[in-house]
Amino acid sequence: MSLLGKAGRAPAAQESGFAAHRAGVDRLLASYRAIPPDANVRLAKKTSNLFRARAKNPAPGLDVSGLNQVIAVDREARTADVAGMTTYEDLVATTLRYGLAPLVVPQLKTITLGGAVTGLGIESTSFRNGLPHESVLEIDVLTGAGEIVTATRDGAHADLFRGFPNSYGTLGYSTRLRIELEAVEPYVALRHIRFHELRELEATMAQIIADRSYAGERVDYLDGVVFSADESYLTVGRQTDEPGPTSDYTGMNIYYRSIQHDSTTPKRDRLTISDYLWRWDTDWFWCSRAFGTQNPKIRRFWPKKYLRSSFYWKLIALDHKYHIGDKLEARQGNLPRERVVQDIEVPIERTADFLDWFLREIPIEPIWLCPLRLRDTEGEQPWPLYPLEPGRTYVNVGFWSAVPTVAGQIEGAANRAIEDEVSRLDGHKSLYSDAYYSEEDFAALYYGGDTYRQLKRTYDPDHRLLDLYSKAVQRK
Question: Residue 223 in contact with residue 279, Cβ under 8 Å?
């Protein structure tokens, strides 16, 4: 994509955006050079969308303060150049002004574009648009060696381009990404379809993905919620420019509760495109109930600006720091609960199998469902560190809560059982939260044979960055 106009000069706003970005990259490089050579290189950021704890790092971190803006949007080419630490909230606010949106917009506003690419992201367009990294056209990466390299699908650093997804910052950090965008309409018309049997839901989901339609209407968005074995839903969305009333789930009304109904006829709803993209953020899916904000008596007085995932993250950070939840459990004579905050993927034909097992063994509800298919069909496993098969449909299953523990039980018993069941069903688990794999099993699942080790030798020869097992499992 060229950002130059007919006269060969970039528009003033784009020139300004790239100048600011270059200044941010300069600060980043200066902060890299200031880190002692025997210290691990990490980001100096106050917030994170990761749930796994990690050891404190006494060394200064990388200054990414200048890498949080949309650099330029090319409306005609439907692309955007975006700094790596830009949140999807800011990215979407910019692109929607052009009638455009990223091909996949993860559910929470504070997820960054760079984070979604190196750590994977997903949403209700993933059944047709794959995962966020598949819409990346080129990416600038600060490697462990302290160099900025530009990686593209077919360029000199194609190995890094392919290996960057699911590397979680252990190969480097993105400073700029050029991504594809798609045109969007101002509204999304929704239908919530109820199921009483999980296998019927599984079959209907597969048919919708094959047809890209349901009951004669086009489907642009698809996800689901399981409340119990006999109450589950698929929500199908269709973009539209038709005017009409819209619902608001940013105040007293709660989105996931609006899905539920008893009728055999799908329940209909409408949202603005912005409210649809952020429908899960107001209540962090359903996790806001842990803070009491779904109680109408509390919600009425809860400031609206704090009904968002970024504020709940602050409450979680306080709990981690002061062990508030554990202390409350102890007052009731209970052991600390085990945190089970995970997203996994299984082949679509094993979805009901996994859900049957999960509902029987793990006392958590609701459960989120989000189908996906890779866009990329080149090669058998185009993204080696998260080897999903091209042409095969998977379903992401998300569950986020905590479960009781038993005296003498092995640490992470529930999470370990989930890992075993997911592997048995030929699936994978995302690495943003607690993991308990042995080093051998982890390498078999996430290293792509020798791919990861070769990438580390090439782009982090002095081991300035943590390796993936240390970061994801050992939580260093």
Answer: no
Contact yes or no for 95/82 (Cβ under 8 A):
no
Residue 251 amino acid letter: G
Location of structure tokens 């594809």: 180
Residue 334 tokens, joined: 């209970």
For residues 250 and 282, the answer to whether their CB atoms sit within 8 Å is: yes
> Tokens 């479960």 label which residue?
403
Query: Could you tell me the two tokens for 386?
Result: 């998260």
Helix axes 351-361, 413-424, angle to 10 degrees: 160
Contact (CB, 8 A) for 143 and 170: no
Question: Which residue from 320, 82, 277 is spatially nearest to 179, judged by alpha carbons?
Answer: 82
Closest alpha carbon to 178 in 195, 161, 156? 161
Which phi-psi region, left, alpha or beta, contains residue 237 (left: φ > 0; alpha: ψ -120 to 50)? Answer: beta
CA distance 200 to 195: 7
Which residue has tokens 């085990």? 338
For residue 27, the cross-strand partners are none
CA 144 to chain centre: 24
Q: Who's near 18: CB < 8 A, 6+ residues apart?
A: 3, 10, 71, 72, 81
Which two three-digit tokens encode residue 139?
């990416």
Q: For the beta carbon of residue 146, count every other beta carbon within 10 angstroms.
A: 15
> Considering only CA atoms, which of 343, 384, 372 is closest in space to residue 165?
384
Rounded CA separation 271/248 (Å) = 7
pLDDT tens track of the chain, all 476 residues?
Answer: 333 333 334 566 677 788 889 999 999 999 999 999 888 888 876 655 555 555 566 667 899 999 999 999 999 999 999 999 999 999 999 999 999 999 999 999 999 999 999 999 999 999 999 999 999 999 999 999 999 999 999 988 999 999 999 999 999 999 999 999 999 999 999 999 999 999 999 999 999 999 999 999 999 999 999 999 999 999 999 999 998 999 999 999 999 999 999 988 999 999 999 999 999 999 999 999 999 999 999 999 999 999 999 999 899 888 878 888 888 878 888 888 999 999 999 999 999 999 999 999 999 999 999 999 998 666 667 899 998 999 999 999 999 999 999 999 999 999 999 999 999 999 999 999 999 999 999 999 999 999 999 999 999 999 999 999 999 998 76
Cα–Cα distance measured from residue 114 to residue 141, given in angstroms and rounded to the nearest whole number: 10
| Spatial CA neighbour of 417 closest among 350, 371, 351, 363 | 363
